[in-house]
Amino acid sequence: MENFNVPTREEVSTDNQAIFDNLESQVGFVPNLYATMAHSESALGSYLTFQGSNTSLSNKEKEVVNLIVSEVNGCKYCQSAHTAIGKMNGFTEEQTIELRQGHASWDSKLDALVKLSKDITKNKGNVNPETLEAFFAASYTKGTLVDVIKLVGDKVVMNYLHNLTKVPIDFPVAKELELVND
Question: Could you state, in chain order, the average pLDDT of each consecutive group of 10 residues for the chain (182 residues)?
């Protein structure tokens, strides 16, 4: 298998160099997985536009989805990145672990969201009707459902990219979870 490098600014197109510069100024560095997208002339810019588009989900809700989707898909990079981002958005380490396990015992609304997101990911959109009912009962809307599906797709792209490329994780590595049967 081809070994994937993390391209430097000098190794990418002019358009991607501008994106690198923007990420550097906004985030403080260019995350390795974003840099890996720059092997393509257009993927990084298109992805960041998609990822940054408007949504009805709060930053905390986005991290709920990001954490469980990354766990279901076995993406250590995204588990690590979104554990760090989840903490920046107010979750404790223990809460990020619980979210990765598919539960939010401290918040019934987030619990409905994490369960639906897990079901969507594991079953490729074919969710259990009770899970969907609980999501709507938690005061989420059809519009929110569409936004959740969009976010699942966003995270699947990055999960698959890392699972295929195995570029180095440049965030504090997320803890391994105890095996849970469900």
Answer: 86 98 96 98 97 97 98 98 97 98 98 98 97 98 98 98 97 85 52
- Cα angle for residues 42, 168, 149 (degrees, 5° grid): 55
> Residue holding tokens 């190794």?
11
- d(Cα 182, Cα 177) in Å, to the nearest integer? 14
Is this prediction's pTM over 0.85? yes
Please work out, in degrees rounded to the nearest 5, the angle formed at the alpha carbon of residue 12 by the alpha carbons of 8 and 16: 105
Residue type, 75: C
Structural domains of the chain sorted by starting position, each given as residue range(s) with its CATH number in brackets: 11-51 (no CATH), 59-165 (1.20.1290.10)
Are 92 and 60 in contact by the 8 Å Cβ rule? The answer is no
Both structure tokens of 103: 């539960």
CA-to-CA distance for 173 and 165, rounded, in angstroms?
17
DSSP 10: G
Task: Name 101's Cβ contacts closer than 8 Å, sequence gap at least 6.
Answer: 71, 177, 180
- 46, 53, 77, 64: which is closest to 120 by C-alpha? 64
